[in-house]
Design a protein that fits this description.
512 residues, alpha+beta, OB fold (Dihydrolipoamide Acetyltransferase, E2P), Dihydrolipoamide Transferase, Chloramphenicol Acetyltransferase, 3 domains, 7-stranded mixed beta sheet, 4-stranded antiparallel beta sheet
């Protein structure tokens, strides 16, 4: 006996209320295992593969690729508990009502448990719906059951009944890797109902979520493109080229249509107003990463009375120390250390001296909450937009450890694989906008934090050093702080300490 369970879009992280379907990983009729990823969605913070907490046969999918669903909306339904290796028949009975992490259907007819072929499936599902928190069991081989073999008839309780049977397709007796001796039905040539036939099999060779979104916005079929990147990877330039070609083709059709519709004796002057009409303004939906950034910064400007102070610092000694550290050889040599890692370590030392800036404001309780640890965020510009990954427990790390974690998180940000947990919970943010070739800025605080340090580019400039004019490596530091948590004296003391450590790295040794 089997029952149909409904899997809803789970809560994917703090503050996320919707997600956009990027790619379905299963189709109707596929057999899925517990915690097997079934759909790839894009939230305002990251790309996430969502695993299904049930094992069984997919009976329905809700939403096409590109559809935006709110948290709690149905994703798919799964018939669980049906035998998968022998011919069976009979109605599927619903189980007792229950919900697991918001993924089971609500109401008195909602089933919540089933029996499966493995010990893990015996409880009906793991209930784990976030990537990386599954049971660890390998995903089962997909097996397609023809949808016309599923008799979807409502029972008296309102649940769906499913008559499950193995496909009538020929059976191959060759054993499958990982499941010896299990006969596998031959692939069915009948496509699942409601699913479009793909141009080619296999996943589209696209890494960047921005490329996918750009293609969706302009109705470009990625499977028809030939990627110019490594191993056929489709790049943004390939999509831009396809967009230009489509626009040129559309413009050519328009010109042809106008020429055919124009009277024979029409003068060029009469046709000029239509030809010179101003193009319509482009409207871009404010959603995804761009929408999340807009909401975050608008809230910061609305709620936080911020102020900014800045100072120029001579970074010549800091650059020399970094060069010496990275030039070390032999057993004592460690990994290369970036300037950002050194500045991050200086920030953790400064926050230990000025803990007021490692805090947040509880507006409802009208309290300043000083936080015990430093979770250091750093601004990273990606093709999807601005994201702020968080280095956990930065106050317990040295420069090498911070640098390694920054490099790891930066790579995840570049590929769009940061999880929501890696983008939330920061207590202080470091913004290195010098990589864009600018000297200074007035950063906007990453709400609900209390401060952000901005770092401009390090440039050779004339500087008075030891009473003489010399060319030194100079950097501008900007600190934006929440005036509710401290006054200018605290903010100035923090910024001055950071500048002193930049100019004389030996100052940092006092706090080590």
């Amino acid at each position: 006996m089997a029952q149909v369970l409904e899997f809803k879009l789970p809560d994917l992280g703090e503050g996320l209320t919707e997600a956009e379907i990027v790619r379905w990983l299963v189709e109707v009729g596929d057999v899925v295992a517990i915690d097997q990823p079934v759909v790839e969605v894009e939230t305002a913070k990251a790309m996430v593969e969502v695993p299904c907490p049930y094992g069984g046969v997919v009976t329905a999918r809700f939403g096409e690729e590109g559809t935006e669903l709110p948290v709690g909306a149905p994703l798919l339904t799964v018939a669980v508990g049906a035998p998968s290796g022998q011919e069976t028949s009979g109605p599927v009975t619903p189980g007792p009502s229950g919900a697991r992490n918001g993924s089971a259907p609500s109401g008195p007819s909602s089933p919540s448990s089933s029996s499966g072929s493995s010990a893990t499936e015996s409880s009906g599902g793991s209930g784990n719906v976030l990537v990386g928190y599954g049971t660890g069991a390998p995903a089962a081989r997909r097996r397609r059951i023809r949808p016309d073999r599923l008799d979807r008839t409502p029972t008296r309780s309102g649940a769906l009944t499913v008559e499950a049977a193995v496909p009538e397709a020929p059976v191959s007796e060759a054993p499958v890797s990982g499941a010896p001796g299990v006969p596998v039905p031959a692939a069915s040539s009948t496509a699942a109902p409601g699913s479009a036939a793909p141009v080619s099999d296999g996943p589209v060779p696209v890494v960047s979520p921005l490329v996918r979104r750009l293609a969706r916005q302009h109705d470009i079929e990625l499977r028809r493109l030939t990627g110019s990147g490594p191993d056929g990877l489709i790049l943004r330039a390939d999509v831009d080229r396809a967009i230009r070609q489509a626009e040129e083709a559309e413009a050519a059709k328009t010109r042809t249509a106008r020429a055919a519709a124009a009277p024979t004796g029409a003068s060029p002057a009469a046709a000029s107003p239509a030809a010179s009409a101003a193009p319509a303004a482009e409207r871009i939906p404010l959603r995804g990463v761009r929408g999340a950034v807009a909401d975050k910064l608008s809230r910061s400007r609305t709620e936080i009375p911020d102020a900014t102070c800045w100072v120029d610092a001579d970074a010549t000694e800091l650059m020399a120390v970094r060069a010496a550290m990275n030039a070390a050889t032999g057993p004592s040599a460690g990994p290369k250390v970036s300037v950002l890692a050194l500045l991050a370590r200086i920030c953790t030392a400064a926050l230990a001296r000025f803990p007021e800036l490692n805090s947040t404001v509880d507006t409802e309780a009208r309290e300043i909450v000083r936080l015990p640890g430093v979770h250091l965020g750093f601004a990273a510009q990606t093709e999807r937009g601005l994201v702020v990954p968080v280095v956990r427990d930065a106050h317990t790390r040295n420069a090498e450890s911070i640098g390694a974690e920054i490099a790891r998180l930066t790579e995840l940000a570049r590929t769009g694989k940061l999880s929501p947990a890696q983008l939330t919970g920061g207590t202080f943010t470091l913004n290195n906008y010098g990589v864009f070739g600018v000297d200074g800025s007035t950063p906007i605080i990453n709400h609900p934090e209390a401060a952000m340090l901005g770092v401009g580019r390090i440039m050779p400039k004339p500087w008075v050093h030891q009473g003489e004019l010399a060319v030194r490596q100079v950097v501008q530091l900007s600190l934006t702080f929440d005036h509710r948590v401290c006054d200018g004296g605290t903010a100035g003391g923090f910024l001055r300490y950071v500048a002193d450590c930049v100019e004389q790295p030996a100052v940092l040794l006092r706090t080590l």
